[in-house]
């Protein structure tokens, strides 16, 4: 007799929501998950968890899951359930037809940051070895691609510098464009603990987040900048440090390129970058910037944590480089308590980038033009890899509208909801002849699909996720895939249908191939992960037990690179028609576009997205708390309820984007980061007016 609540079997696995990567023991009774128990030995969470990882797993057995493959010749036709064999053969023959008819570059794929490293590796392998082009991209395009570019330029590698434990040694913490209390709750709790112990906090954010002021926590400085002015504020902070002689000259001479530093110091010292010269357009009082800069430069170990409020801007990459400059000029790199720490959004966005999901990079961030790197994969796979970068997601959509891009394989990603300019995404998808969506549910993108391949959850597969601190954590299968196959098996079967001789019998064999081909993963294998719990890359002959902190003795690129960060105002301007600026964020109980969390009991905590409006702006428009309002921009309009609050400044409005009815990306613009095309989600000129409801 089994007592109520008593598990029959269990396995330690990794949460599939945010980039903290918490470990849980998944307790099962037969094929039913009865409990997720935070795992005390989990090195990212040490027994802690949040309401998403702990409770929001019901989507895995939700009735909306699609368990059988489906095909339709035209997107106006009804779906027809078919066998796996028919679905994969149809997909393979369609992709081959398209390439024969329109050329090798007419098809591509999008990897998922929700899937495992092994699945992502196989997706890019299918595209590079099977499709014969580099048309592979990932959802990092719309979130942390500027992190990859900016940190790669400054330090030589596209990842955060620290482990989460590091925050326990911080004396001053800058949080810019992030709300870890809601977005990365378990790390947020560790940060709050350190703040309660006396560390000082500087928040740079248009909105008064919980970190600015909550019980027992009060930020020393809240730089409530106008959306879109991150670069100006970061450069003004650097101006104060350099012109007041607060730089760490020993560190700079020892670790950085001195002539580049001198050039950069001359640039930031210009009067036009001073807090006084910039306060008009940043909205941050000069005195506040001066005091914050002095605190960061002289307050001991200084750490910087940032999120999508940095990257999702037309100057996202520039802001990342400005953050790197600030860390280097104050000597805050290469030891516990310091560093540059991107708070990655999705569970495996770090891993999807590591695994070669970008059209210009092979696994391990090696450019496709690197002959030696290509040679490794060509010998292993027996193919020739193109030395030309492929298309990014927005370029694929543009090419589809123009008529040259015809087929797309999308794994675990809802680009119609998550990518900018919804109308353009829809037009691009509608113009293609074969769109294949692999997902748990019929998502919005599936409205434009010709083939639907059922996806599997993290509970149904083995593999690894890599969290925001580069920690490679094991994912362990606790239930049989409800659709018959784990995602890596579906990709393998499609590859076979296209004529490739893949014979993986377990994801551990894929990891072995990753280790052979990718130097930063050379020491990673399943027996080692099972033995030590998890490991942070690079893990190889130079770092046999992994690398909790990077750039300890020297930067990966050699000398740290100071880069001029010229502020360029976004083209998205307010004016009489659209006088307010909209910015967006997340809430604790929900996750991204809500595809999973809305299908769990967590939805009761956040049944709808609301628009935060300052009392002054609300009064001017006759809007009261909980009223329906119409939110309009140059791109489109939507309707949602208002919350009147001083969390936002006058002139700024804010919403979350967890419910499809909010249609946040109908409102946002098509401006994007100059280096990576990451969309500028965080700055949209809008108007609001009373409404009777949707
Ligand atoms: Fe999952 Fe992130 Fe919550 Fe941890 S903090 S339980 S990884 S959602």
Automatic annotation (TrEMBL):
Segments crossing the lipid bilayer: none
- What are the GO BP annotations of this UniProt entry? formate metabolic process; respiratory electron transport chain
What name does the UniProt record give this protein? Formate dehydrogenase subunit alpha
Q: Give one GO term, molecular function aspect.
A: 2 iron, 2 sulfur cluster binding
Q: A cellular component term (GO) from this record?
A: oxidoreductase complex
Keywords assigned = 2Fe-2S, 4Fe-4S, Iron, Iron-sulfur, Metal-binding, Oxidoreductase, Repeat
State if 4Fe-4S is listed as a keyword: yes
Protein family: Belongs to the complex I 75 kDa subunit family.
Keyword presence, Oxidoreductase: yes
Query: Start and end of every 4Fe-4S Mo/W bis-MGD-type domain?
Result: 8-64
């Amino acid at each position: 007799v089994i007592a109520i609540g008593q598990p029959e079997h269990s396995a330690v696995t990794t949460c599939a929501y945010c980039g903290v990567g918490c470990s849980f023991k998944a307790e099962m009774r037969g094929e039913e998950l009865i409990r997720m128990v935070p795992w005390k030995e989990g090195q990212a969470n040490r027994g802690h968890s949040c309401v998403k990882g702990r409770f929001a797993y019901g989507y895995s057995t939700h009735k909306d899951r699609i368990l059988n493959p489906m095909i339709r010749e035209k997107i106006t036709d009804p779906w027809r359930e078919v066998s796996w064999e028919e679905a994969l053969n149809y997909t393979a023959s369609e992709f081959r037809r398209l390439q024969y008819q329109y050329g090798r570059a007419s098809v591509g794929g999008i990897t998922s940051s929700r899937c495992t490293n092994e699945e992502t590796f196989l997706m890019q392998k299918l595209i590079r070895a099977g499709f014969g082009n580099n048309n592979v991209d990932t959802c990092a395009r719309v979130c942390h691609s500027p992190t990859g570019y900016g940190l790669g330029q400054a330090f030589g590698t596209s990842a955060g510098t620290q482990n989460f434990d590091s925050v326990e040694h911080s004396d001053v913490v800058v949080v810019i464009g992030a709300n870890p209390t809601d977005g990365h709750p378990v790390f947020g709790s560790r940060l709050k603990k350190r703040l309660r112990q006396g560390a000082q906090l500087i928040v740079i954010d248009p909105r008064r987040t919980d970190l600015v002021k909550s019980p027992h926590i009060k930020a020393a400085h809240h730089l409530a900048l106008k959306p879109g002015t991150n670069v100006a504020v970061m450069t003004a902070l650097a101006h104060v440090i350099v012109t007041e002689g607060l730089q760490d000259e020993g560190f700079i001479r020892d670790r950085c390129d001195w002539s580049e530093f001198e050039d950069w110091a001359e640039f930031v010292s210009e009067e036009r970058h001073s807090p006084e010269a910039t306060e008009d357009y940043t909205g941050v009082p000069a005195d506040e910037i001066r005091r914050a800069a002095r605190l960061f430069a002289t307050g001991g170990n200084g750490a910087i944590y940032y999120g999508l409020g940095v990257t999702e801007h037309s100057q996202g990459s520039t802001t990342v480089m400005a953050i790197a400059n600030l860390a280097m000029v104050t000597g805050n790199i290469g030891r516990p308590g310091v560093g540059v720490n991107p708070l990655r959004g999705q569970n495996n966005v770090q891993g999807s980038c590591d695994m070669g999901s970008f059209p210009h990079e092979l696994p391990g961030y090696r450019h496709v033009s690197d002959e030696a790197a290509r040679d490794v994969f060509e010998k292993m796979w027996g193919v020739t890899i193109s030395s030309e970068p492929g298309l990014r997601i927005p370029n694929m959509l543009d090419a589809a509208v123009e008529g040259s891009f015809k087929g797309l394989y999308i794994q675990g990603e809802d680009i119609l909801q998550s990518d900018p300019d919804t109308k353009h995404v829809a037009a691009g998808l509608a113009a293609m002849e074969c769109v294949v969506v692999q997902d748990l549910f019929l998502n919005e993108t599936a409205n434009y699909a010709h083939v639907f391949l059922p996806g599997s959850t993290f509970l149904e597969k083995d593999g690894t996720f890599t969290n925001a601190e580069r920690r490679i954590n094991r994912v362990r299968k606790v239930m049989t895939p409800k659709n018959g196959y784990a995602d890596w098996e579906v990709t393998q079967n499609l590859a076979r249908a296209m004529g490739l001789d893949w014979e993986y019998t377990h994801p551990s064999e894929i990891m072995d191939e990753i280790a052979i081909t990718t130097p930063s993963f050379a020491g990673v294998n399943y027996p080692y992960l099972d033995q030590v719990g998890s490991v942070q890359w690079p893990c190889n002959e130079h770092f046999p037990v992994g690398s909790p902190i990077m750039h300890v003795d020297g930067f990966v690129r050699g000398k740290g690179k100071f880069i001029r960060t010229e502020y360029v105002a976004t083209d998205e301007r307010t004016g009489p028609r659209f006088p307010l600026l909209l910015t967006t964020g997340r809430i604790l109980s929900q996750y991204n576009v809500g595809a999973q969390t809305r299908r769990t009991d967590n939805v009761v905590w956040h049944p709808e997205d609301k628009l935060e409006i300052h009392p002054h702006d609300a009064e001017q428009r006759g809007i009261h708390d909980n009223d329906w309002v119409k939110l309009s921009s140059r791109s489109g309009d939507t309707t949602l309820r208002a919350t009147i609050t001083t969390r936002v400044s006058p002139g700024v409005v804010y919403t979350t984007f967890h419910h499809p009815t909010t249609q946040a990306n109908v409102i946002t613009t098509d401006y994007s980061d100059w280096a990576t095309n990451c969309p500028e989600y965080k700055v949209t000129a809008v108007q609001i007016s009373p409404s009777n409801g949707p």
